[in-house]
């Protein structure tokens, strides 16, 4: 299938390595233009809200924060300094109080241009600002992500987990024993599963590693995409004027160009096969009579996000869970004990089902929850408009006891909320699964209600169930098969995704 000129910027600011120079140059130029021409009069409407001095005048400081790769920590420091509402740009307020979630991320909340990346006429579900349009697009793509659909695919998913364990065993244990970087192994697993379930394709991430630079190039361009999100007007201008230069195209040799090509190929194959009764996720969308006449160009924007949205999120969740457990031997020992007892109970550990895990290894859920709390894969803030008429309120909302007028951008960050000491106590930076496993049901219900790791409201993560399912199965089988020694914890920077490297481990076969 031919390449369209208007692929999403998220996708095309992600070109080959030489393209990185090109996009950085454009960003630099853009910032300069912005700094010289666009600093305007101080916006006084939100002057009652505390924040860094520059925030009343310009968005440049928020760009600077992004480029450090530790924006989330800067946001937390700002809340510690200024309180639960921080003015972060002339028209943006950040909120650190979890009880604001339902008021911000309500059914009819519209997204702001923070998310817009597409220079073309088509918007994917993630970019879509309008809540009604979003609902239509999301409804279409939902079926393969439902809990039931994930459960139905347990055998397929188990097959990949089995391959994953076998690949780790063959490459890094026995005669080939060596210390290796585990950081991306969760990414490989989830990518193989998603591409198989959704596109019916065998991509071989587990077998061959990063597919033609997909992960590497996504990460390399994270800073540019993330920085431009803070400058929506400038971004729109750039897209309109230079969009075509920034857009990698299918088969142009760039990492993302390859993925676009692959996506188009996979879509083409499904269309050609025309298998109306298949279980492949994409077929269920393409051949659903309810979707007759669907705009393919629009769907294509979503297809790429399904691939890119899966990898570094679930990958980060898995790598941090492994690291947190290895750094906390008592937690690891407690989890191991439950796993070993399940094995003694004659459960086939090579094929242990999700429901058996839930019934026999209850501590795992607390470990996963706590690891996601301590190390959320998405850390940056997720903006919405305070709506004027759409929210039924007709002009503003009250947050943390203060009135916020319509037309203001408000946002919470999963990282900041997960460090809320009123909710979690003073040890927010520790990994302590007992926080959940030994708390009252009441407290757990509250913590779950205010969990922002997967977003909140109608735009919350569509892949949450799949991600949880895969994480459970992968970690149980990993700990069943191997003893792991942590050699180095590694480190990362967060942009759109985590760019994390150097989680060095040594595996030893247990069984
Ligand atoms: C631990 C793993 C994951 C985390 C922490 C995570 C986090 C998030 C968050 C915070 C959002 C909301 C974004 C917003 O409000 O702007 C989101 C949306 C989304 N996620 Fe995930 N995600 C994960 C796994 C996945 C997986 C495995 C997939 C796909 C297979 C996926 C696909 C998506 C999609 C398509 C959306 C957009 C939903 C919409 O706009 O309605 N995610 N995710
Ligand atoms: C794993 O268990 C499922 C039922 O839970 C069964 O259908 C499948 O054949 C089993 N696979 C293997 C390899 O034993
Ligand atoms: C499945 O996902 C929904 C949100 O889509 C969430 O409310 C629910 O808790 C999830 N269930 C599991 C087992 O993760």
Brief overview, please?
The chain contains 24 helices and eleven strands. The chain has 511 residues and is an alpha+beta fold.
What do you see in this structure?
This protein has helices at about 10, 15-40, 60-65, 70-80, 100-105, 130-140, 145-150, 155-170, 185-200, 205-210, 215-220, 220-230, 230-245, 255-275, 280-285, 295-325, 330-345, 355-360, 365-375, 415-420, 420-425, 435, 440-450, 465-480; strands at about 85-90, 90-95, 180, 380-385, 395-400, 400-405, 410, 480-490, 490-495, 500, 505-510. It is α+β, with helices and mostly antiparallel strands. The strands form 4 sheets. The chain has a 4-stranded mixed sheet with strand order 1-2-7-4. The protein has a 3-stranded antiparallel sheet with strand order 3-11-8. A two-stranded antiparallel ribbon has the order 5-6. Strand 1 and strand 2 form a beta hairpin. It is globular. The termini are far apart. It binds protoporphyrin IX containing FE and 2-acetamido-2-deoxy-beta-D-glucopyranose (2 copies). One 2-acetamido-2-deoxy-beta-D-glucopyranose (NAG) binds near residues 155, 351 and 353.
What are the main properties of this structure?
binds 2-acetamido-2-deoxy-beta-D-glucopyranose, 9% strand, single chain, 4-stranded mixed beta sheet, 511 residues, alpha+beta, globular, 3-stranded antiparallel beta sheet, binds protoporphyrin IX containing FE
- Would you count the extended β strands for me? 11
Helix share, percent: 40-55%
Query: Helix/strand/pairing class, anyone?
Result: alpha+beta
- Output the radius of gyration: 23 Å
> Count of helical segments?
24
Bound molecules: protoporphyrin IX containing FE, 2-acetamido-2-deoxy-beta-D-glucopyranose
Percentage beta strand: 5-15%
Largest sheet: 4 strands, mixed
Unreliable stretches (pLDDT < 50, length at least 5) are 1-19
Protein name: Cytochrome P450
Pfam family, one: p450
Keywords: Heme, Iron, Membrane, Metal-binding, Monooxygenase, Oxidoreductase, Transmembrane, Transmembrane helix
GO molecular function: heme binding; iron ion binding; monooxygenase activity; oxidoreductase activity, acting on paired donors, with incorporation or reduction of molecular oxygen
């Amino acid at each position: 299938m031919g390449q369209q000129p208007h692929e999403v910027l998220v996708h095309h600011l992600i070109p080959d390595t030489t393209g990185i120079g090109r996009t950085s140059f454009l960003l630099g130029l853009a910032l300069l233009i912005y700094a010289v021409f666009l600093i305007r009069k101080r916006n006084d409407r939100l002057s009652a809200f505390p924040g860094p001095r520059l925030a009343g005048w310009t968005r440049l400081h928020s760009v600077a924060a992004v480029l450090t790769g530790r924006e989330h920590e800067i946001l937390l420091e700002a809340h510690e300094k200024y309180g639960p509402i921080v003015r972060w740009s002339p028209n943006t307020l950040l909120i650190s109080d979890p009880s604001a979630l339902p008021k911000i991320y309500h059914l009819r909340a519209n997204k702001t241009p923070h998310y817009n990346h597409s220079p073309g006429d088509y918007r994917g579900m993630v970019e879509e600002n309008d809540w009604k349009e979003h609902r239509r697009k999301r409804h279409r793509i939902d079926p393969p992500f439902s809990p039931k659909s994930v459960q139905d695919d347990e055998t397929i998913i188990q097959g990949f987990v089995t391959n994953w364990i076998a690949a780790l065993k063959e490459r890094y244990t026995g005669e080939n024993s060596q210390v290796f970087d585990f950081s991306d192994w969760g990414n490989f697993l989830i990518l193989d599963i998603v591409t198989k379930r959704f596109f019916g394709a065998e991509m071989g991430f587990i077998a061959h590693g990063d597919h033609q630079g997909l992960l590497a190039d996504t990460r390399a361009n994270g800073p540019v995409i993330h920085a431009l999100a803070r400058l929506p007007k400038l971004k729109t201008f750039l897209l309109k004027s230079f969009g075509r230069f920034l857009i990698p195209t299918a088969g142009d040799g760039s990492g993302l160009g390859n993925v676009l090509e692959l996506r188009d190929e996979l879509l083409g194959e499904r269309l050609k096969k025309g298998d109306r009764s298949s279980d492949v996720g994409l077929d269920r969308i393409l051949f659903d009579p309810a979707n007759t006449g669907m705009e393919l160009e629009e769907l294509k924007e979503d297809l790429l996000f399904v691939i890119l949205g899966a990898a570094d999120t679930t990958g980060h969740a898995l790598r941090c869970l492994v690291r947190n457990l290895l750094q906390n031997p008592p937690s690891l020992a407690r989890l191991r004990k439950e796993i070993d007892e399940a094995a003694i109970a004659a459960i086939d550990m090579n094929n242990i089902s999700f429901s058996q895990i839930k019934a026999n290894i209850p501590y795992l859920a607390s470990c996963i929850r706590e690891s996601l709390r301590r190390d959320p894969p998405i850390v940056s803030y997720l903006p919405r408009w305070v709506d004027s008429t759409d929210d039924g309120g007709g002009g503003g909302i009250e947050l943390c006891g203060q009135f916020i007028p319509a037309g203001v951008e408000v946002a919470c960050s999963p990282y900041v909320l997960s460090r809320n000491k009123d909710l979690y106590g003073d040890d927010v930076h520790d990994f302590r699964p007992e926080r959940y496993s030994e708390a009252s049901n009441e407290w757990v219900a509250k913590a779950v209600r205010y969990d922002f790791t997967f977003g909140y409201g109608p735009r919350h993560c569509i892949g949450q169930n799949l991600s949880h399912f895969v994480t459970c199965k992968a970690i149980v089988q990993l700990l069943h098969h191997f003893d792991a020694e942590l050699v180095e914890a590694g480190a990362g920077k967060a942009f759109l995704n985590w760019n994390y490297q150097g989680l060095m481990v040594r595996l030893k076969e247990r069984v």
